[in-house]
């Protein structure tokens, strides 16, 4: 058996991976028992569940504004449910309609999670006109829930249940209803994607291995990694904020990398057995080559996901932590549980041979392709580069905005309710920008401060696109500045009921709240410009305001991502370069690998904008086009940058083995491509199958994530690793292996040691 790939001189001490293989082989029973115990702990954690949240970013201005306004009934809409009551025959002024509404809302009011209920039943006529639709059959009520987003979302099912049996059709909408529907859909999408991805992966594995036993092993490792990864996320959610999306990310990445790593190891093990090695020899050789590649690949993926940790205080950081955790499990199981199973199976790994089985020799197709690429590198390189760059051009038109109600399928209650609200109650459905004015202390409605608030509301009303301003000093129409100041000086108990209600709704502590209404969509350029205009002049007398709401959160999220992206990208690229430098002992190849990764990412990002933002294929994929979620590009960058290293490490490791053996760069590149091309495309096919299962998701963000990753992996494994990388390495010749003097001498010694070996 040849010693190719081992960097130590022949006859030297066995490598770390060789010693690991011997240890696993001799203690395979203990390893499998330990895996079963870990699986039991994971199942226990899954049954206990977790405390997952929505995607939030701490410390941004929009969040600070929401916190300031939280005590005001009209401050934030995040915990408010809009309930539309309807009856085809009863009119809203009929006593039985009013009685049904009153009875239903009374049941809601008794719930401990409910803070307040606003209903037009029995309210003044001016107020009632806003909450009764011109149809005469529809009425709007508002329910404010206690706590933050997490608590309010958890309370949604109780409110929905309390409204049952009223005799009226009830439709609930608002952010709480949206989040509840989103969480339910994410859980459903996750289950459906896993149920689809496992059979798809199995079909590809059966085609690759042609035996049932070998094909099942990667699925076992993938299932273990995902189960333990999800369990770890649920446990972490009890001590830190973990977004619901994290489970989808963990499942998406964990299943793909675990199956890929297992594919590499099982393929090499079977190849070593075919050369006449014993089971222990085959296992040792496998972990010393493919195992080494898996370890470095896992490190590269973890480094990539580690870039998300630079977004501290956001859900991105939690996703990075969860992703790194599942990759660690994938590497752990691929290097321990899988070798233990292989040690137990031995030659039986080829049991269950399928009828279409065939001998797997050195494929003529890959030999022909490798030869052609070596002979015509420029003809391969230039057109392929041009194609990838052309695919990336749409990324220049990228627009970012947070996920909103349009991310839900059209049939969901929250989306139907939002559309009904916009049609019947346009003022209540208008985009609202929150302005929370904080004064140094004391009453925010002294005569002087009330006058300043009145002036500020007039100034805001003059801004482009503003429909009106709701506040304690503008709720009653026709009040000029002098009247506002007189009312502010009067004792609260002497004020008209409308003004008393306004004070209670728009004032909390030393904070006065204003809601700025605009007809522009929350994610529109006009709404964003309004937020920026409001932030230009914050002074209100001796107070200052903070701007919040959905549009402000979009602006702040985009700025947050932009601010932290350079450090994250620099870390990922720098650490990946170091990992490859240590593995390949070359300065040139890591830099080339970074460039290749950027090319495949450019193509994927361009396709993402072309499809999901500009709406191409929206009928086929069944989604509504719109701006891209701010976190998606950086999440894909960090995940895919590491995943792309799977194939880079596998290809370059095999090329380096040949170069160390022969010293002939052209031969090494051709041989490496010929021997790994089929494995790379097979592994990519599995990843694409896993990721493609997520394109069937109901939530657009998950659909975009799955398709974006599938496109990137497909481009990386075909155009980049199989064509561009070999062509560039052919053109660069021996310069590929240039490195520091110490490692050049080490490589030279390794070549001298292996120069006389005969390759099977």
From TrEMBL:
Species this chain originates from: Corallococcus caeni
Protein location: Cell membrane
Subcellular location, principal: membrane
Coiled coil: none
Alphabetic keyword roster: Cell membrane, Membrane, Transmembrane, Transmembrane helix
InterPro entries: MMPL_dom, Mycobact_MmpL
Membrane topology classification: Multi-pass membrane protein
Protein name: MMPL family transporter
Transmembrane segments: 29-47, 190-209, 215-237, 249-269, 289-311, 323-345, 376-395, 567-588, 594-612, 679-702, 709-729
Gene3D superfamilies in the record: Multidrug efflux transporter AcrB transmembrane domain
Domain called Membrane transport protein MMPL: residue spans: 63-377, 408-747
